[in-house]
Each structure stands twice: as C-alpha cells, then as structure tokens.
Design goal:
- This is DoxX family protein.
- It is found in: Cell membrane.
- It holds the Pfam family DoxX.
- InterPro entries: DoxX, DoxX-like_oxidoreductase.
- It is a single chain.
- The protein is mostly helical.
- The chain has one domain.
- The protein contains nine helices and two strands.
- The protein has a two-stranded antiparallel ribbon.
- Helix 2 packs antiparallel against helix 5 and helix 6 packs antiparallel against helix 8.
- The two termini are 33 Å apart.
C-alpha cells in the first residue's frame, strides 16, 4: 500500500506546479463560454445611445408590464438599476478577460448571476417550469438554472479566490508597485 501511495503522490504531486495556471484557464473558459453570452445580452439593452425598452422588459418584467410597457411610467430607481445592470454586463466581463481587478469583477459577476437568476425565476416565472429549474444530484446535467448557473458561479468564485493568474493586468500592476503578487 505504501508503494502505491508513493507512486500516486510522485506522479500527481507534480501537478501542484501547474496550480498557477488554474486562474488563467478559468479566464479562458469564461471568455470561451460566457463572454459572448453576456455581451450579446448587454447589447439588447441599448438602443442607439440610450437604454432600450427591452432592457426594462428583461430586468423588471412585471413592473414594465404593469406600466403598460412605457419606460416613462417607471421611476428613477428602475432607470438607475437598468443602467447599472447594463453597464455591469459590459464592464465586468471585460475586466475579467483583461485580468484587471479580477477578484472584484468576478465577485460582481457572482452577484450579477444571482440577481439574473432571481429575475428569471420570479420575474419571468421560470420557477413554474420544473425542467428549466432542474435539480441537483439527478442524471440530467443540463438544467438552465441549477446546473448551468451553479457552474458559472463556481467558475467565477475560482477567479474571486485565486485571482487572475500569471498573465494578467493585475499581476503586471502589482509588479509595477514592487509588491509581491497576491496568492490564494
């Protein structure tokens, strides 16, 4: 048994040296899987130089419906939330890709995904569709909410905890300050 454990540790122990690449891989996967999704979604929220009515329909579906689909009938609060959400949907993914303020941007994206999920569940009534909500520990790994969003949040929490990795503006800025890189 000792030989087996020694072989195991010597074989897979070398993988510890690759640990700094995990954040870089997480940023790559974010770019490959989620970047175009979030930017396409953000683009539907702008119309010319302002916010589109679709932005209000996506973020405040029930309130917008109750206002007769008239953006002017909604208050300043709704406009500020829609503007902030739209800006966040453009800015936070860009910061993650650049590796700039990555931990804060990834944590912001976690919050964004949580709000997005709650809006989908209750605002768009996805909670009434059991197949979209899904469940964990079943044989179907493709539900829209629990499975997909759970993986998104895990990916973003990896960046929140580990940072951007060796090839990032965060690392470059930290080196310019003469400070040691932040490590998890």
């Amino acid at each position: 048994m000792n030989r087996l454990l020694s072989l195991y540790y010597s074989t897979f122990g070398t993988l510890d040296k690759a640990a700094p690449l995990i954040p870089l891989l997480a940023r790559f996967l974010f770019a490959a899987i989620l970047l175009s999704y979030f930017w396409a979604s953000a683009l539907t929220k702008v119309d010319g130089v302002g916010l589109s009515s679709g932005a209000y329909a996506q973020i405040f579906p029930r309130a917008f419906e109750a206002a007769g689909y008239d953006t002017g009938a909604l208050g300043l609060f709704h406009t500020l939330v829609v503007a902030a959400g739209t800006l966040a949907e453009f800015l936070l993914p860009a910061l993650i890709i650049l590796g700039l303020f990555t931990r804060a941007a990834a944590l912001g994206m976690v919050g964004f995904v949580v709000v997005q999920t709650l809006t989908d569940l209750f605002g768009h009534r996805v909670i009434e569709e059991a197949s979209a909500l899904g469940q964990w520990f079943d044989k179907h790994p493709d539900s829209l909410i629990l499975d997909q969003r759970g993986l998104w949040i895990f990916l973003l929490l990896t960046l929140t905890i580990k940072g951007a990795g060796p090839l990032s503006l965060d690392r470059w800025l930290r080196a310019r300050q003469g400070a040691a890189p932040l490590t998890a």
